Amino acid sequence: MTQPLRPSLKSLLAVLALVAGTARTGRGEATVAYKYEDYQESGGRIGVRTQGALVEGTIGTVTTVRVNGVIDAIAGATPNGQRAPAGSDQVVLTSITERRKAWNTEIARQFPRLNVTLGAANSREGDYVSTAFSLNTVTDFNQKNTALLAGAAVTTDDIKAFYRFPSPVLGKRTLDFILGATQVLDPRTSVSVNVTFSRAYGYLNDQYKLVQKSTEIVPGVFLPLTFPENRPDRRVKWITLATLNRAFPDARAALEGSYRFFRDDFGIVSHTLGLTWLQRVGSRVTLEPHVRWYRQDAAHFYYYNLDQTPVVPVFGAPRPQGPFYSSDYRLSALDSLTLGLKASWKVSDKLEINAAWKVYDLQGRDGTTPASAYSRAVITSVGLKFSW
To answer: Mean pLDDT, to the nearest integer, of 370-385?
Structure first.
């Protein structure tokens, strides 16, 4: 499914080491980290193996540089949007193989009461190139008990579409803005609230997803034909995230709780609750059990079975004027539950090793989409971090 570490990642590690060496010439700490993660859905579904490297260090006394690189190997089967054949509840699956290379870098500078971070990122697949730039500021006051966050980002995506030959390159543009505040309530407790506004426009389809409809070829003769999905070419999203952090010194532990509310003009509304307990065990080990619950309403143009609708799909290029339709199960009404455990071992003052395990279960709740469309996955990861 995946391949061994390639020269591209080895070169990245060499560059990160060089950056770390440069950073360490100033006063401050430098960190180099590596992480391997395996995501595997059951039943031969999608598997993703990820290798990532990160370096972070200070240049001088007020500037921090962070560089991160990732290589993903993706392979397996995924629903393509076609209905289960008559007499079966197994939706049609399509095999995919893809390799993604991505990097991002951040440069942060601390001014009196103000931290400014500039970011840049790039991700590449065989038919997809994404480039992003960001600016974030954090201002503290009230004796550093209050911090205000303000930021903006722009993302440019170029997608090689396959609905005609030669394949055209279509664009997608996204603008994101965030405002937030963090407040220390007492020496043990802090709360944060962030609000994000996002606007995307351009080619928003997933070109690998289909819809199926029984179409009359000649009078009285119907065939189950497939068509590319057609989503709107505009999407506006609002996200509110609230977090609570509470320390329990007597138990040598802390609790992190979060609630996320999401709404967009596709008609999707979602709620996410997360809880993480951080427990010190001895002087060098930390355990972090985690639970996350997610619920989502369906997009207003999601249909498992177009035969039961008046929608008439057509072949060809996207049509911003509509009608809109998709049978992508990820746009359906669904619930998910994630349970996990992470362990970190501080081997020495300079070296830390960590490992994590998660199980992820996704279930539909519209009573129409077969259970076979949804997945269950196990996610395992190991990593190490070296600081000096």
So the answer is: 97
DSSP-assigned letters across all residues of 271-291:
EEEEEEEEEEETTTEEEEEEE
Show Cβ contacts of residue 268 under 8 Å, excluding neighbours closer than 6 positions: 262, 296, 297, 298, 299, 331
Q: Of 174, 234, 233, whose CA–CA distance to 198 is shortest?
A: 174
User: In 14-92, at which residue ranges do the beta strands (DSSP E only) sit?
Assistant: 31-41, 47-59, 63-79
pLDDT band at residue 13, thresholds of 50, 70 and 90?
low
Q: Tokens 């089967």 appear where?
A: 77
Q: Which amino acid is at 44?
A: G
pLDDT one-digit tens code per residue, 199-228: 999 999 999 999 999 998 888 888 999 999
Q: Is the pTM of this model over 0.85?
A: yes
Of all residues in the chain, the percent with pLDDT exceeding 90 is 85
The alpha carbon dihedral of 197, 202, 206, 212 has a sign of positive
Residue 128 neighbours by CB under 8 Å, 6+ apart: 157, 158, 159, 160
What token pair was written down for 274?
A: 């997360």
Report d(CA 225, CA 99) in Å as an integer: 30
For 243-254, give the secondary structure using H, E and C.
EEEEEEHHHCEE
Task: Select from 130, 123, 137 the least CA-distant residue to 154.
Answer: 130
Task: Quote the CA–CA distance of 388 and 382 in Å, as a whole number.
Answer: 21
What is the spatial distance between Cα 349 and Cα 351, in angstroms, rounded to a whole number?
6
Average of per-residue pLDDT across 254-265: 98
Q: How far apart are CA 87 and CA 291, in angstroms?
A: 37
Q: Where are the alpha helices (DSSP H) in 152-273?
A: none
Question: What single letter denotes the amino acid at residue 349?
Answer: D
Angle at 110 between CA 106 and CA 112, to 5 degrees: 160
